[in-house]
Amino acid sequence: MRAGRHVDWKSKLRAFLIGRVVATERFRIAYKGPGLIEGKMDAVKFASALLGLGGLFHAANRELNGERAHVSVRVDAQFQRGSFEVTIELSQSLLEAAKQSLLHHHEVVASAKDLLELILGGGGVFGLIKLLRGGSPKKAAVVELDSGGLSVRAGDGTTLNIRREALQLYESPAVRDDVAKVVDPLLHQDADAFEVGSPEGESVQTVTREQAVWFEPPEEMLRPVELPVTEPKTEESVVRVRKPWLTKHGRHKWTLQDGRGDFNAFIEDHEFLAKVDEGLIRIGSRDAFRVRLRLEPGDEQTTPVVYIVEKVLEYMPAPQQYRMLAEPEE
After folding, report:
1. How far apart are CA 131 and CA 279, in angstroms?
2. Does residue 286 contact residue 52 with C-beta atoms inside 8 Å?
3. CA–CA distance from 118 to each of 101, 169, 176, 256, 260 (Å)?
4. What are the residue ranges of helices labelled H in the chain?
5. How far is CA 327 from CA 40, 80, 101, in A?
6. Which contacts (CB < 8 Å, 24+ apart) does range 321-326 have?
7. How many CA atoms lie within 13 A of 52 on its CB side?
8. Which residues does 203 contact at the CB level (< 8 Å), separation at least 6?
9. What is the Cα–Cα distance from 105 to 257, expressed in whole angstroms?
10. Percent of the chain with pLDDT strictly greater than 70
11. In this predicted model, which residue has the larger pLDDT, 221 or 263?
12. Bridge-partner residues for 30, per DSSP?
């Protein structure tokens, strides 16, 4: 290297990392029970559960990392009689908004591995729901630990050590709404157990049908108060289309749904709209889309927030039929 020549390695590192996958975690989920013994599971229930799982990681990432990182969830199905089992690949990439964090030697608040542990681990959201039976943590004894974490003691004296972020996610309406979707098949006849484990088969978390009712979010969480925004901001979300084809002043205005409930949004992704018009994309009631939303200040009295879909980043059609094993040949 020539004398006197300065190389900004931090900027080079940031430029290299932005947009690249920086971490990938694989884990296994399985729905089990006598109702699956014939190798069949209701497609709608399972599709909704998978969409809930994807939305769950997006909501948790948004809650903890804001606009500094993006996560994607992909499914590798592996079927066997008596269960419906899939391997999930959770990937995380840094976004441009992570620039200041990298330059000041800060890491992303929660890595892909962190998100996995904070949600599905024994000391995460699932473990905390089982401890408190879905109740408010305000009714439990919470003690701060020297490590910076928390010790939560339920009314029966059972304790659980958790990270602070787990409690933050536990109290997030969007996270709790998607958690409920993941365990919803247990409330029906298809499955009576939900299991999380390593791809190699080790089990780390199990929810039974009797415990599934604890995973329903409290009523006060179902429709959080919509606070006005003071300046435009963007965020990513996984949404379903409730009512398309609505137009206002020549603009497409659709009713969408995500963890915050139903809301109206203008669609400004003209490439996506053209594909819909040409029939290249057919929207079903269970289809989901990962979108980039722009939130703008609205009328504080009538419409506190104006939602605009700037870009449809990923189209996730719901599967029409699932069959775990082919019928044996005669």
Report:
1. 48
2. no
3. 21, 8, 13, 28, 21
4. 9-17, 43-65, 99-103, 112-120, 125-132, 164-170, 173-183, 209-212, 219-222, 270-277
5. 11, 12, 54
6. 321/43, 322/40, 322/41, 322/43, 322/46, 322/47, 322/84, 323/39, 323/40, 323/79, 324/36, 324/39, 324/40, 324/41, 324/79, 324/80, 324/81, 324/84, 325/39, 325/79, 325/80, 325/81
7. 21
8. 195, 196, 197
9. 37
10. 74
11. 263
12. 85, 195
Q: Which of 55-69, 161-175, 193-207, 217-231 is predicted least confidently?
A: 217-231
| Burial (0-12, 13-18, 19+ Cβ within 10 Å), 108 | buried
User: Per-residue DSSP letters for 67-95?
Assistant: TSEEEEEEEEEEEETTEEEEEEEEEEEE-
Tokens at residue 147, please?
A: 């490590």
CB atoms within 10 A of CB 330: 3
Secondary structure (3-state) at 151? strand
Q: List CB contacts of 13: < 8 A, sequence separation 6 or more.
A: 102
Distance CA 170, CA 217 (A): 10
The superfamily (CATH) of domain 233-316 is Nucleic acid-binding proteins (2.40.50.140)
Question: In the structure encoding, which two tokens stand for residue 271, read together?
Answer: 């490439």
Tokens of 312: 């449809």
**Residue 85: pLDDT over 50:** yes
Domain positions in the chain are: 14-220, 233-316
Tell whether the torsion through CA atoms of 68, 58, 165 and 297 is positive or negative: positive
**CB under 8 Å to 106, separation ≥6 — which residues?**
none
